[in-house]
Amino acid sequence: MGSLTYFCPSCWAEIGPDISACPGCGCRMAEYDALPFEAKLILALKHPIRENRMLAIQLLGERRCHSASAIPAFEAALREEEAPYILGEVARALARIGGNEGRGIISPLRSHPSAIIRSMAEDSWSELTEAGPQDTVAISPPRSKDCHVSSN
Fold first, then answer.
1. pLDDT tens-digit map of 29-60
2. pTM to 2 decimal places
3. Is 117 exposed, middle or buried (0-12, 13-18, 19+ CB in 10 A)?
4. Does residue 92 sit within a domain?
5. Tally of domains in the chain
6. DSSP H helical segments within the chain, as ranges?
7. Is 127 contained in some domain?
8. Domain for residue 130, yes or no?
9. How confident is the model at residue 66 (pLDDT cuts 50, 70, 90)?
10. CA 136 from chain center: how many Å?
């Protein structure tokens, strides 16, 4: 059985399991632990392991997390990601979240060069336009200055 790899939730550098602050960026783990679950999911959109990013995207969509940080974080993921299924899952999450911002982000994906992304974007577009207004979970960005949600 292999050993676990731990990452700083702010800069994603490998860290030890029992540290109180990241030696690279100074993120204090106690501050991270105190963040709301949705804020942790937004941070996980930059996780170095693709499957963890995918899970964060799916959960944000399922929870209909519409916050000041979630939409820009999804936009950043679309700019930075190359994996077709991740990009398609972002479209699906935006459809679940609903709203005009989601429409504006999904629309260009409908003409993406990748057939997989186009198909997922079309499905998401249909879901978004047929669903109408959705209840959303509003969250505030975390207050910690050490571990912060950023779409950059």
1. 999 999 999 999 999 999 999 999 999 999 99
2. 0.79
3. buried
4. yes
5. 1
6. 29-33, 37-43, 50-62, 70-80, 84-97, 100-109, 115-131
7. yes
8. yes
9. low
10. 16
Residue 71, in any domain of the structure = yes
pLDDT, residue 137, reads: 40
Q: Give the chain's length.
A: 152
Lowest mean pLDDT among 38-47, 97-106, 139-148: 139-148
The pLDDT score that the predictor gives to residue 70 is: 85
Separation between Cα atoms, residue 39 and residue 60, nearest integer Å: 10
**Can you give the residue range of the structural domain that contains 99?**
66-144
Q: Mean pLDDT over all residues of the chain?
A: 84
Q: Tell me how far apart the terminal alpha carbons of the chain are, to the nearest angstrom.
A: 36
Say if residue 148's pLDDT is above 70.
no
Maximal C-alpha separation, the chain: 48
CATH of the domain at 79: 1.25.10
Region for 7 from its dihedrals, namely left if φ exceeds 0, alpha if ψ lies in -120 to 50, beta otherwise: beta
Contact 138, 67 (CB under 8 A): yes
Residue for token pair 């669903």: 131
Task: Report d(CA 83, CA 89) in Å as an integer.
Answer: 10
